[in-house]
Amino acid sequence: MPIRFEVNGKQVTVEVEPRLTLADCLRQQLRLTGTHIGCDHGVCGACTVLVDGDAVRACLMLAVQAEGSKVVTVEGLSNDDGLTPLQKSFRKHHALQCGFCTPGFITTAHALLSEEPDCDADRIRDVLSGNICRCTGYISIVEAVLDARAAYKSNGGKP
Amino acid sequence: MKNTFIGSPVERREDLRFLRGRGQYVDDLAPEGLLYAVILRSSVAHGRIVSVDTKAALKIPGVHAVITANDMPGGPPIIPMRLQPLPEFKPFEQPVIASTKVRYVGEPLAVVLAKSVAIGEDALEAIEVEIESLPAVADWHVAAKNKNILFESQGTNRSLVFEARKGDADVIFASAPYVRREKMRTGRHYGLTLEPRGVMAEWDAARGRLTVSGAAKVPFFNRRILAKQINLPEDSIDMVENDVGGGYGARGEFYPEDFLIPFAARHVNRPVKWIEDRRENLMAMNHARETEAELEVACASDGTLLAIRGEIHTDMGAYMRTNGAVGARNVAQFLSGPYRVPHIKIDSSLWMTNKTPVGTYRGPGRFESSFYIERMLDMIAGDLGIDRVELRRRNLVTAAEQPYSIATIQPTNATDQYDSGDYRATLDRVLKEINWPEVSKLQGKLIGEKYHGLGVACFVEGGAAGPKETARLELNDDGTVSVFLGTSSVGQGVETVFAQIAADALEWPMERIRHVHHGSTSYVSDGYGAYHSRSTVMGGSAVLEATNHFQAAIREAGAKRLKCEAAAVKIDPDNVSGPDGQSFPLKELAGLTAEGAFLNKKHTYSYGAHAVHVTVDPKIGRIEIIDYVLVQDVGRAVNPLTLRGQMIGSLVQGLGGAVLEHLQYDEDGQFLTASLADYLLPTASDFPNLRCVILEDYPSPINPLSVKGAGEGGIVAAGGAIANAVANALQSFGVEPRQLPLTPTYIWELVQAGRQKQAAE
Amino acid sequence: MKLPQFEYACPTTLHDAVALLAARAGDAKALAGGQSLMPMMAFRIAQPALLVDLRKLPGLREIKVSGDGVRLGAMVRWRDIEDDARLASAHPLLKAAIAHVAHYQIRNRGTVGGSLAHADPAAELPGIALTCEAEIAVMGKGGARTIKATDFFLGALTTALEADEIITELRLPPWPQERAKSRRWGFQEFARRRGDFAMAGVAAFYDLDNSNKAMNTHIGVIGIGDRPHRLPAVEAMLNGRAIDDASIERVAAATSAAVEPQDDIHASAAYRRALVGTLVERALTSAAA
Predict the structure, then answer these.
(1) A residues 49-68 closer than 8 Å to B (CB)
(2) Which domain holds residue C42?
(3) Lower CB count within 10 Å: N or C terminus of chain A?
């Protein structure tokens, strides 16, 4: 069935089977391969995208459920010219190694910092506990998100 | 210009694509005409295959083909071992697909090729499989009865016994003043990568060429196996490494799918992609770690270690896989850890069971053996009334004793020696960092609902497995240079680290190292890969060699053009000049290339110590880490930023194995932990208080960079350190953990047993 | 782990949604947030022929706070409960329990109705509904009815919902406001990791009478057995008594004796038995504090 929604600021219409998840729709139909599938059963967080501003697991949502929504993926949180403050902070703190979980952490951290730019380390750990990283041990990720708060604070929730 | 990129926390080049969602992993590839492979796996742990009927599956619209063992003339090929390929193991090696028997839940039975993964999975449900069940061999104890046998022709479930020998342990034990005996075990866990495995194969029938994407770790070796199995010349196969979402020892070994997918692509003459799903990843990727040990340690009354003796049993799972013997060998060879043990006699048995086969996981055998020796040291200290730190200090190998020889392994006659270092220095440092004199006042104290405890453990980490690694430099049109490597990336950051090494050696700015290409078989003539903490040591030294040859080649070319002696040619980042000031732009030599290789028969040994302060809630069995410090001397840190990433990252993996991760089976060999809700990985809130300290006091004497492998230090001693801390916290109950993981149930049981014993006394 | 095939419908009225479910006689499932159903389908444990998406149904997303208690629309998300400042006083026990539910991303999609219908024995909301004697309002082809929480949870992943019925609202009885200090409560659970299903959990509340003795005691447990349940014998031990260390200790022991826990891969039955006693002890201690 055809569905229409907004992805990274652009309206798209795609023809999908009901059983296609939003994660597969983004990756296969729209070729937005920055959204990764690490478990396909709602545990690892690698497929996290923003739907109407909320961080959600794209593997636990049907593409048809996104009809009429605004979806933002890691590509939509990136610029061509350089890194955003959040991305810079991840790089500075070496908050990624293999990079597979990274898009999910970026989208989740962005949602958090947009709403709660004053969050503390405990809140960050609580929120990020829905994303699995197998490489870093998380210490550097928490540091990176803490460090990126300033950029969101100074700009009223926008980095 | 003298560069100091080596030693600087250079931010990674890879990050620019990963952070923007522009990495390219194998699942991101989707060529025209692609078919998706989905694998039917056995749901029976042990049985004889009666039939696999694919007729109904083939009728499903969108299903293109179903491949079984019957499609392979001459039967399914067998996957040979890569490390320790002993003749004894041959009969136990794994066929790429089951044809007569299944031996574990998850063993491939058929491959469906379909228009989509979803349709492929629909087809799995339509394949009718009849298997006559046999009694399952669910652990090594059952295996050792040799009643039900996985490989009947062998008459035994034991594929081998590794013997670790040094001195004459039996003589020492006959007259030792003190002996402690213990039985302990470590749980089954594995190097779960967040990106599941994946293979995509494209067959070019006209040119007879096969391209295999998704290669990792050891692409050259895997190409050799595949070429033989699929009957193609090696140079007709390109193994392509894409971005790789984690390795940890488990990814990149030759698995059944590494044959099945290329075979399928050739069979149907279409590109075929298989992406492992998480459920199959849990039951198909190499398992690791499950061992049981019965050990005796003999000491002098002052705590001097005299001898270790005993037996270790490894649950190997159903087949001997490519590197499956490494853990069982290491657990025996490295049982003495960083300690001076003059007499050793360990028999390490490899038992075949009806479980997923094992392979290596970061720190193979070392994590297990460290848990054993570190636990025993604490128990011995208690028995002898010696401070446990002092006991370790007395027994650590000293700098004066280096290089220090450890036990020899039979039947491979493998000897090994530690290369350099002052192990006491890292112990002293870790105690200082955690403020041991102060926090040790809390040992065993109950504050609120929790007991406080401290643990300490020391380790060595082997690295730099030989024999050889290769690198090549090529000058580009714009005067930049590209580096090509035989080693591969599993996500550690090799593009940055090798650019640092090359830029320092050439004395050029980093930007002039345009690309670092790695992992694919087309880049260099030969390569060995990323395992055994070897990439930086071996690949880095090869880059150094290659830059020497590269500069020599420029001088030679320059000498010809400038008509002077090669030795008189000067190279700067832009120009090549002669003694009389005549010069030409370097980029005019574009296309110039030089290869370098580094050969090595010795291992590097970095070393260090862990210290941890925990609390334990005895009523619910919860462990919380208050502070954890890891100190490691790595000889020389090429990039402290990425090194810290290796240290903390491996530490959290170690803590996962010590506290959370546990692959479980029932007595019928049914797999009980087939989701990430069942197999528990550490998350951001589990281990928040971890620190690490990098030391560079003892550069490695055996390579030109002076570096030592350092990817495993965090994982190796984590189990021992945390278990010691738990014992220390719960000393008032007489708790001595003897197994991992330290689950709430297990801790609570130990406390209960302690309470009951006290009540009885 | 791709989903099996199904048909999809997205009705705009409750009436149509019920009719769609009714027409499939048990072979259709309502889809709310999907946070439990989707994983079940990914593992092909659930293979409904039709999914009826409730997202366009009006009037199910409201949280109503009144003298009648707290009413949570079936499509209210965990996130909405977290964000609703009124609930801190209107139902602190609910608020405390929901803080333990799953992870950030799940909390943005998971719903009240979905959790109740899924009926995981370790889930927090069914435990709260049961402990607080809530009612679950449902709509079916025969019209609306309410089901008492005690009658709703029939076993692991099994409820009293008929195949054509859709949950519309959870109705929690009023939490005393005027004598807020006399209502004492505690919630305790222990999971292996943050956001995991608990190995066991306890929700408890009681009211203090004029002589500071407990009355109206409610103690519910989750993660023990095949459904959330109350511990009437243990509650009776507390009613009419002062809550002090001695009574708490006795009650904790009685709790362990009263429950019938199960073994699973995360915890042994014996451990769970002890754990639930400890959690009761801690819940009551924090309630009394």
Answers:
(1) none
(2) 7-53
(3) N
As to burial, measured by CB atoms within 10 angstroms (0-12 exposed, 13-18 middle, 19+ buried), residue B514 is middle
Chain A within 8 Å of C1 (Cβ-Cβ)? Answer: yes
CB burial of residue C116 (10 Å; 0-12, 13-18, 19+): buried
Q: What CATH number did the domain enclosing A136 receive?
A: 1.10.150.120
Q: Which of A56, A65, A112 is the closest to C53 by Cβ?
A: A65
Peptide bond into B741 cis (omega under 30): yes
Residues listed for chain B: 761
Peptide bond into B31 cis (omega under 30): no
- Name which of B118, B278, B672 is nearest C2 (Cβ-Cβ): B118
C179–chain B Cβ distance below 8 A for any pair = no
Helix (H, G, I), strand (E, B) or coil at C69: strand
* pLDDT tens-place string over residues B521-545: 888 888 887 777 788 888 999 999 9
* Domain limit, last residue, from C147, C172, C197: C172
Tokens of A61: 């949502």
In Å, how far is C40's CA from the nearest CA of chain A?
A: 8
| pTM (2 d.p.) | 0.97
3-state secondary structure B374-431: HHHHHHHHHHHCCCHHHHHHHHECCHHHCCEECCEEECCCECCEECCCCHHHHHHHHH
- Of the CATH numbers 3.30.70.100, 3.40.50.2300, 3.30.365.10, 3.10.180.10, which one belongs to the domain with range B15-22+465-599? 3.30.365.10
Q: What is the ipTM of this complex?
A: 0.98
Chain B residues touching C275 at Cβ < 8 A: 619-620, 744, 748
Considering only the C-alpha atoms of chain C, give the largest distance between any 2 of them, rounded to a whole number of Å.
62
B127-148 residue pLDDT tens: 999 999 999 999 999 999 999 9
